[in-house]
UniProtKB/TrEMBL annotation:
Residues 11-71 form the HTH tetR-type domain. This is TetR/AcrR family transcriptional regulator. GO terms for molecular function: DNA-binding transcription factor activity; transcription cis-regulatory region binding. It comes from Actinomadura montaniterrae. The keyword DNA-binding applies. Keywords: DNA-binding, Transcription, Transcription regulation. It comes from the Bacteria. Transmembrane segments: none annotated. Residues 34-53 bind DNA. The keyword DNA-binding applies. Pfam families: TetR_N (PF00440). InterPro entries: Homeodomain-like_sf, HTH-type_TetR-like_transc_reg, HTH_TetR.
């Protein structure tokens, strides 16, 4: 369905506010910038900023909801006869190819320097795993601790390898080297998980 003019303008405003905020955060540090500074730089009121972004950290993670839903949506959209692991592997491989799994040095440093942002990264990962578990539960018609443990294993590749990419960016490693590391480690991890989880959550 095509986005209406009003919704498109809201999305454009939201993106513009996030872009302005990110420039300030990367220049001064997230914790040092006040919401009113973002509003002044964007030429809007403080209330406008908080209406679009109730939490200051939302200005950094403006696509948090998409990330949180990513694994659940990937699994939900997989074809009949395919297990959840294969769908997640295919999605992660595509993200590596597009270099979406590697943060920029400026972004990584900004997050590293803020406890609030570091906590938000962990929260997003937790919520992504929970959303995946909810999607699997809706599909299987059951929700128990063992199933959640399997879900945690399925989500672990994203969580661990993003952390590795983040750490290596901060260490100043070349981007192409990090991408190669992610591709190799992901293949090895998914191969090992396939041996134990390959028959789990096959879509009817």
């Amino acid at each position: 369905m095509a986005m209406g003019l009003r919704e498109r303008r809201k999305q454009e405003t939201r993106q513009a506010l996030s872009n302005v905020a990110m420039r300030l955060f990367e220049a001064k540090g997230f914790d040092e910038v006040k919401i009113i500074e973002v509003a002044d730089a964007a030429g809007v009121s403080k209330m406008t900023v908080t209406n679009y972004f109730p939490r200051k950290e939302d200005l950094v993670f403006d696509r948090a909801e998409v990330i949180i839903r990513s694994l659940a949506d990937t699994v939900t959209a997989r074809p009949a006869g395919e297990n959840a692991l294969t769908a997640i592997r295919r999605d992660f491989t595509a993200r590596i190819a597009a270099e979406d799994a590697v943060p920029t040095p400026a972004f990584a440093q900004m997050v590293q320097n803020s406890r609030i942002l570091t906590a938000r990264v962990r929260e997003i990962a937790d919520l992504r795993e929970q959303a995946l578990g909810d999607a699997i539960a809706a599909e299987t018609g059951q929700d128990d601790p063992l199933q959640r443990i399997v879900v945690a294993q399925l989500a672990s590749v994203h969580r661990v390898l993003f952390g590795e990419a983040f750490r290596r960016v901060l260490d100043g490693r070349p981007r192409d080297e990090i991408v190669r590391m992610l591709a190799t480690a992901a293949d090895q991890a998914f191969d090992r998980l396939e041996a134990s989880l390959g028959d789990c959550f096959i879509k009817a």
